[in-house]
Amino acid sequence: MENQQETAAAEHLQSVRWNSDHLEMLDQRLLPEEIVFLELNTAEEVWEGIRHLKVRGAPAIGISAAFGVYLGIRGFEPAGSGREALEELSAEVGRIADYLATSRPTAVNLFWALDRMRATAQALAAEGVMTADELKGALLEEARQIQAEDEETCRLIGENALTLLHDGIGVLTHCNAGGLATAKYGTALAPFYLAKEKGWDIKVFADETRPVLQGARLTAFELQQAGVDVTLICDNMAGMVMAKGWVQAIIVGTDRVAANGDVANKIGTYSVAVLAKAHGIPFYVACPLSTIDLQTPTGEEIPIEERHEDEITIGFGKRTAPQGVKVYNPAFDVTPNEYVTAIITEKGIVYPNYQENLPKLFEE
Ligand code: MRU
Known about the structure:
The chain is α/β, with parallel strands linked by helices. The protein contains eleven helices and 15 strands. It has helices at residues 43-51, 58-73, 82-100, 108-127, 132-162, 190-198, 214-225, 238-243, 269-278, 310-313, 354-357, and strands spanning 2-6, 16-19, 22-26, 35-40, 170-173, 203-207, 229-233, 249-252, 256-258, 263-266, 283-286, 292-293, 332-335, 342-345, 348-350. Bound molecules: 5-S-methyl-1-O-phosphono-5-thio-D-ribulose. 5-S-methyl-1-O-phosphono-5-thio-D-ribulose binds at residues 56-59, 107, 175, 177, 181-182, 186-187, 214, 253-255, 265-266, 331.
């Protein structure tokens, strides 16, 4: 794995980008201090990148995994020929996808993207008209397509979100659901970029987002780079900011929306939602349809990742807790649907009753 350092301005920094024969992944662990792109050539390197938060954010994880499938199969030489070779290749795609699916459990976009790669391989193998090399090329194209679609999807989410905001509004966000977490624009942060283009002045408050500080390191960084008015606060200041009347809306992203509208997002989101309700402030969730999981009935069934205790006790290399102390470190929490004012998607804005209204998004 090679590192490629960039010192140029971080405008429109892409979290992952395909470069002729390899994947470049921005190492988000190093932001905001260093802009380093890693050169990835194998599915194992992509798995590592996802597991260790070099890339993170639900859509960006899915995009990376799709490229990871291609990297995993490009060196595979089927033993058979013709249709048999295509079926072997398709089975190998399934095996690589199963492996990449073990990298992180909560963001459903990972499984969505892997299923799409599997389905593409199966459909093309069933047609039986391509060579194995052509099928590999089609899988690379599918990964690129997933990335391109995400950019367009995020722009549409931003446009829809903008209809809920106005010039001069204050908005609080949690974690990072920006360009770094997606192909471009982000989900929760997309309206801020579009508002900037319109000349609106939106004041964004970014929770720093303990324990690994996606809000401070990533959201504050990318909004500042774009010239958006952003103020960084510690997570425990959100209530104070709301009480002072400085924010009139909350917008967050999500890793998975259950069929009943319960929403999993970065740990701390639930507290923000409860505070928002207490202050009569609308709490919006922005996400693509690929984050909505109608197969998972409620938030209870969403698998919540627990991460290593070191993130809390020796985050960023400094010990801040006694050796041996018991630690609980869930990476996500679930906000019950009753706190969610609306879910903003590329297909429009969905209001309760979510159980009834979310499936309508998937109707043609
Ligand atoms: O652990 P992370 O950094 O992957 O968590 C990311 C989040 O919780 C984001 O809010 C979510 O993925 C939405 S990204 C558009």
